[in-house]
Amino acid sequence: MNFDRTQGWLLAALMVSPAACTDIAVDSAVDARKGGSGIDLDVGVDGTPGILLADVALRPGVTVDLFVNVYGHLGSAGHAKKCQFAVHGGVFAAASWRPYAEALGEDACVLVVDLPLRGNSGSPKGAQFGDLDLFDYVTAIEEVLERLDDRKIRPRTILGHSMGGTLVQMLQQRLFAEGSSLRKRFGIREAILVASDLPAEVPWALGDSGDLSGLIEAFAVDEPGLGLLFEIPVSLWPAFYFTDRDNNVVPGALTPEEIEAGGFNALGEPLRAIHQLNGTGPFTSRPSAQADLFEKGTRLRAIAYEEDIYVQLAESETLYRHLTGDATSSCFVPVLGPGAVHVLQFSDPQALVDAIASSEDCDY
């Protein structure tokens, strides 16, 4: 990825007059999607079946109600080990994984938690949303996996898209520091990073330039009752997420209306969390993920996109080698082609399904 070209595109996006961000409208006529489950499921405000986890503790005195959306067929608790547990990206919601789940077929099962203040999850109690950071998000994911485990719902695969990839790395890092791991603690055998953001240890042309802080601040909004947030107006989503390295919006890109109707977007993220993710603002570096974090126990695959304007293919491959110690890149999966942008799971979810399937037998 040419940094100057990417920086120019981001600056151009700033010149667009942002429309006011609004909460996603809930269509009361949405039929409940079938969970196909022998487990009693709750129903989210958008009609999606799932599991409501009340009062998930993020830190002392701060809790939030989180909803684990069930896309596909959960079946019995024993069948749940065949489910995938997915983590969405920044300013995305759990529904951003729904096209991928549908592309897997009707017998598939993808469990996706809505992080706070989006989709079917609530707002934190005991703190403003804008006070949260990535450590709180990691705690949320850890607590969700723990509560699912208590219900004998134990998925063996975890996926993370974009910021979600960083959260998966941070969770593994936390568990490793405690003498545990995703495999030991939760029985997770597969981790798949999809267009993941990069930790401090991996060079990143766009992030290491020092120029992102001002761009992030340009999308800062002080929301009454919520605090300082980073918000991307839905009108700019085609330019931010469906644009290739030549600044073209790719075929299959969703319109702002389709994005809102699908519930794919969130109001925003805590500004603090976005600065932490990028090592900007008050943060001097990005979150850390030590070398060989996935050398054994949980097999890691890294999916990267040729036309991703945020992270280059070579940078994603470096991330994979850093985390696995695999110099042959056996489970690094580049997705090539003119439509391989940062949110391929929206525009061409079958391509992501095929990329993961093609690497099913990889090993290191």
Structure description:
By secondary structure, the chain is of the alpha/beta class. It has a single domain, classed as 3-Layer(aba) Sandwich (Rossmann fold). Helices cover 30% and strands 18% of the residues. It is built from twelve helices and twelve strands. It has helices at 3-14, 98-104, 134-150, 163-177, 182-186, 212-217, 237-241, 256-262, 271-278, 313-324, 344-347, 349-358; strands at residues 42-43, 49-59, 62-72, 84-87, 109-114, 157-161, 190-194, 220-223, 227-230, 269-270, 299-305, 332-335. The relative contact order is 0.14. The model is unreliable at 1-35 (pLDDT under 50).
Number of strand elements: 12
* Rg for CA atoms: 19 Å
Biggest β-sheet: strands ordered side by side in the sheet: 1-2-3-5-4-6-7-11-12
Q: How confident overall, as mean pLDDT? A: 90
Strand content: 15-25%
Q: What's the CATH architecture?
A: 3-Layer(aba) Sandwich
Question: Which terms summarize this structure?
Answer:
AB_hydrolase_1; 30% helix; disordered N terminus; Serine_prot/Carboxylest_S33; 12 helices; hydrolase; Rossmann fold; AB_hydrolase_fold; hydrolase activity; 364 residues; nine-stranded mixed beta sheet; alpha/beta; single chain; three-stranded antiparallel beta sheet
Q: Which helices and strands appear, and what pairs or packs with what?
A:
Elements: H1 3-14, E1 42-43, E2 49-59, E3 62-72, E4 84-87, H2 98-104, E5 109-114, H3 134-150, E6 157-161, H4 163-177, H5 182-186, E7 190-194, H6 212-217, E8 220-223, E9 227-230, H7 237-241, H8 256-262, E10 269-270, H9 271-278, E11 299-305, H10 313-324, E12 332-335, H11 344-347, H12 349-358
Parallel strand pairs: 4-5, 4-6, 6-7, 7-11, 11-12
Antiparallel strand pairs: 1-2, 2-3, 3-5, 8-9, 9-10
